[in-house]
Design goal:
Blueprint (H helix, E strand, L loop, with lengths): L21 H19 L13 H6 L10 H9 L8 H14 L3 H27 L2 H13 L4 H5 L4 H22 L3 H15 L8 H10 L7 H4 L7 H13 L2 H21 L8 H20 L8 E2 L6 H20 L6 H12 L12 E3 L7 H20 L5 H23 L5 H11 L4 H13 L3 H14 L3 H13 L3 H13 L3 H11 L9 H14 L3 H14 L4 H13 L3 H14 L4 H13 L3 H14 L4 H13 L3 H14 L4 H13 L6 H11 L6 H13 L3 H17 L3 H15 L15
Antiparallel strand pairs: 1-2
């Protein structure tokens, strides 16, 4: 048996009484809504693409940008490499590219026309379902003009939203017809609308559940008696009727299951799914997001394209949000017998947001305006029917004029706010300056403004935005973008430093991608060598010396007489074990520019490594004349002096290093060793004093060996033996076999109560 619902739940014909046929009035209302919606959104036809997915999805997408091609069509139906499977939205973008090319305003116009079509389809579907034209018209106007829906309409990349919306409402209309006459042809239309919606955007997965809600109200195919079948004596019949309603939707649920699995897989493969966020944190984000959407529905301020995820919420915030959502749901269920549309609207809103509420986190946003495109219809339905019933039953605003004025005020406020919100979508700079205004720590906002400024040739204006990103979150992308801006301004030195930091702090694959991207930096041909020099520095940061040398060979084609390029090439060649070519590079570097103090120092170092100490000392001396305050060069010079059996000269140079830079640890270590082990320089107490500095740093076999020698020189053989034993263990672990044997020999001396002294002809310890 059917439950007799209260009068409040039956759509009232009041206000729908017209002197002409309902179809005529429906057409006029639809035309008026379409015209007003077009006028409200008219500015979009003068807007351009934005650098936030529009480039990835449309303008720079190699499958979409050429328009209709067989390869592109095949890709649309077989690939989910960017986000998920949605061939219909890809085909719509291809059609726009085929017809309009890169004229952004026409792509926006297509979005607008589809949004208008979706709105009209909603009007037709609701009117069919409820037989209440004016209430349906108000819901439709709220849907068409609410500022939360600007993002879906004014963003070319969100074509999938408006397309999905159209087929969602088409499926409603088809379902209403099927309920009138349950035949195969009408069910096929339901299935067709759903499949086309699936091919537009996966968010349609909740539609079969919403159809079940419509079965409760307004279609009244399910009633409370069926849901509480255990209370009904004729429970078998009630269960049978309920199963019939569910069974007809099983094909839709089968599609939902397949689509959900494929979407999750695709999102995980493209790396947009965040799996490192704890479940509890995602639940907290979800509860807060629900309340945020409700607040924005009634008070749509502070809207923008990106609301970044928050690290955590105060307990009162997420707990309060969860309680509010639970309270709304409970109250709607409690009043379901009087106002059956309350639970329908409530579950429509909460349920259709589930795929995007953050329980499965995709992307960097906590929530997004575009996600409300379909869920808000449930809220609008609930509010309009509740308001109309309260007005009719309790006599609120009995005046027809008063009702019209109230509705006009609400819809007018929506239209004005939407028009105001629309202006932020004019271009990327406006869009992301708005993000910065709403969320001052949203690094994506600064990055995208900077990227747009770069693309229109204003790099100097981009740099403050990029520096702000680095002050908030120094990511490898931020360093890379700043590198590009500096390069465009000709600040090659800073550009090189920024690029090196970028590739240093990321994976090898991303580093390669960044370096390949850097190759596209615009630069005059005469300055092309600077780009290769910068790329070589970036490769070297990751110790990829072979690639660094290859870049410098390219740089030499443009700047063959650049002494610095040859010096750096020699360093990378030596680091990769090619000393012979490194030596030739350094000799040529010094020939080209004898005042290149780094080249002179490096040439000295390479000659010293080959045992050509006299030549090495000469080049070190030249380097120090050019730059006396270079502690590393002076340290290396002192090492060469010690190896040349000039310990007193070496001691003087090590002391000079420490006079200029007291915390130069290599010099401290070497001076400690000299003072403790060379009879010509012996000063045991000073050696022990220096050794204390070495104990304050992470130990190495060499530092422990030096401190042990100092302890032994002062007669503390127990400490010396203990330190030597530790040094032997560390040398063994590091597979430094020669050093291990040397320290083991000294350990025997310490155990015998003897210090270690280095013979005059013995080479200095490295």
């Amino acid at each position: 048996m059917n439950l007799n619902l209260p009068a409040a739940s039956v759509p009232s014909p009041k206000g729908d009484e017209i002197p002409f046929t309902p179809n005529t009035q429906l057409a006029k209302v639809a035309f008026g809504l379409a015209l007003l919606t077009f006028f409200i959104y008219l500015p979009v036809i003068g807007y351009t693409f934005v650098n936030y997915d529009d480039d990835v999805f449309v303008t720079y997408n190699k499958m979409v940008a050429p328009g209709f091609t067989w390869e592109g069509v095949k890709w649309a139906f077989t690939s989910a490499e960017i986000d998920y499977w949605r061939p219909l939205s890809w085909l719509s973008h291809m059609l726009d590219m085929e017809l309009f090319g890169l004229v952004g305003g026409m792509h926006h116009l297509t979005n607008l026309l589809i949004h208008i079509a979706s709105s009209i389809m909603l009007l037709i579907a609701l009117n069919k379902l409820t037989q209440s034209l004016w209430r349906s018209a108000i819901v439709t106007a709220l849907f068409a003009w609410h500022p939360l829906h600007v993002e879906s309409v004014a963003w070319v990349a969100e074509r999938k939203d408006v397309l999905c919306g159209f087929f969602w409402f088409f499926t409603f209309w088809a379902y209403a017809r099927y309920v009138e006459k349950p035949v195969g042809t009408r069910y096929f239309l339901v299935l067709l609308g759903f499949v086309l919606g699936v091919m537009s955007k996966p968010m349609i997965v909740t539609l079969p559940c919403v159809l079940l809600l419509l079965d409760f109200w307004p279609l009244r195919r399910v009633n409370p008696a069926q849901l509480a079948f255990w209370k009904n004596p004729d429970w078998r019949a009630e269960c049978s009727r309920l199963w019939t309603v569910i069974k007809e939707k099983l094909p839709l649920f089968a599609i939902v299951l397949a689509l959900s699995l494929s979407t999750i897989t695709a999102q995980r493969e493209v790396g947009t799914m965040s799996e490192n966020i704890p479940l509890f944190a995602r639940m907290a984000t979800a509860s807060v997001s629900y309340v945020t959407y409700l607040r924005q529905t009634f008070w749509p301020t502070g809207l923008c394209v990106l609301y970044p995820l928050e690290a955590h919420f105060a307990p009162w915030r997420w707990a309060g949000a969860a309680l509010l959502c639970a309270g709304i749901t409970a109250r709607s269920l409690a009043l379901a017998h009087r106002f059956p549309y309350l639970p329908v609207g409530c579950f429509w809103f909460f349920g259709t947001l589930v795929p995007v509420i953050g329980l499965v986190q995709v992307g960097e946003q906590a929530h997004a305006d575009r996600y409300t495109y379909l869920p808000l219809v449930g809220v609008f339905l609930l509010l309009v029917w509740l308001a109309a019933d309260l007005i009719e039953r309790r006599g609120w605003l009995r005046s027809r004029l008063g009702n019209i004025l109230l509705v006009s005020l609400i819809l007018g406020a929506c239209a004005v706010t939407t028009r105001r919100q629309l202006r932020y979508w004019e271009d990327s700079i406006s869009l992301f300056n708005r993000v910065i205004e709403v969320n001052p720590r949203a690094t994506t906002g600064y990055n995208n403004v900077a990227a747009e400024l770069m693309s229109i040739g204003r790099p100097a204006e981009a740099i403050p935005y990029l520096e702000r990103v680095l002050s908030i979150a120094p990511t490898h992308e931020a360093y890379f973008n700043l590198s590009g801006a500096c390069f465009a301004l000709g600040d090659y030195s800073r550009a090189s430093v920024m690029l090196s930091k970028s590739v240093e702090m990321t994976t090898k694959a991303r580093a390669e991608h960044a370096i390949n991207e850097a190759r596209t930096f615009k630069i005059p041909e005469a300055k092309r060598g600077r780009l290769h020099y910068m790329l070589a520095t970036a490769w070297a940061t990751r110790k990829e010396y072979t690639q660094a040398v290859a870049e410098l060979r390219e740089a030499l084609k443009f700047e063959p007489s650049d002494s610095s390029v040859r010096n750096d090439m020699a360093v990378y060649l030596a680091a990769s074990g090619n000393d012979a070519e490194a030596l030739l590079c350094l000799q040529e570097s010094v020939r080209l520019n004898p005042t290149n103090e780094l080249a002179q120092s490096n040439l000295g170092g390479l000659l010293a490594r080959k045992g050509r100490l006299d030549e090495a000392l000469q080049h070190y001396q030249v380097s120090l004349k050019l730059r006396p305050d270079n502690p590393d060069t002076r340290h290396n010079y002192a090492m060469a002096l010690a190896r040349s059996n000039r310990p007193l000269d070496a001691k003087a140079e090590f002391e000079e290093v420490l006079r200029r830079k007291p915390d130069h640890l290599p010099a401290i270590q070497q001076l400690t060793w000299l003072l403790a082990t060379r009879p010509e320089c012996l000063d045991a107490s000073k050696a022990l004093l220096l050794a204390k500095s070495l104990l304050a740093i992470p130990p190495t076999p060499l530092t422990l060996d030096a401190v042990g020698a100092a302890a032994a020189a002062n007669g503390d053989f127990a400490t010396a033996a203990q330190l030597a034993a530790q040094a032997i263990t560390m040398a063994r672990d590091a597979k430094l076999n020669v050093l291990e044997d040397e320290i083991r020999a000294r350990l025997q001396l310490y155990k015998a109560g003897k210090p270690f002294y280095q013979a005059a002809t013995q080479p200095v310890k490295k």
